[in-house]
Amino acid sequence: MSMLDALGRIVTRLLLLIAAAVFAVVLLCFALLGLVWILLKALLTGRKPVFVTTFMQFRQATQHFNRGSWSNQQPEREQQAPTGDVIEGQATEIRDDASLPHKED
């Protein structure tokens, strides 16, 4: 009987190993199909995938920590002197609305 028990254990282990390998391959195929779907959707719509924009925003938010600056200083782009460019905007009329509170002089 011990020969049959050993053979049964080997067959059971082999079947479980094959089942685990098939499961892993199927899972990888679904992941690959999902990635292909996301990339095709991004190509067709012209919009970047969400995970790309999320990581880009995270990198921009943590960029000043990568320079070794742990103090409360502002990032370098905010410390730079203004370039002197003037941006003009269109003036619009603000109408007096009765629902807005008025300041009494």
Could you explain the architecture of this structure?
With 105 residues, this protein is mainly α. It has a domain at 2-65. Helix content is 61%, strand content 0%. The chain has helices at 2-45, 50-61, 63-66, 76-79.
Observed structural traits:
105 residues; 61% helix
User: What is the total tally of β strands?
Assistant: 0
The Rg value, from CA coordinates, equals 31 Å
Any idea what the shape is?
A: elongated
Ends distance: 105 Å
- Secondary-structure element order, as H and E? HHHH
β content, as a range?
under 5%
The total of helices stands at 4
Helicity, as a percent range: 55-70%
Structural class: mainly alpha
Low-confidence stretches: none
What composes the largest sheet? none
Mean residue pLDDT: 81
Topology:
Blueprint: H1 2-45, H2 50-61, H3 63-66, H4 76-79
Brief summary of the model shown:
With 105 residues, the protein is mostly helical. The chain is built from 4 helices and no strands.
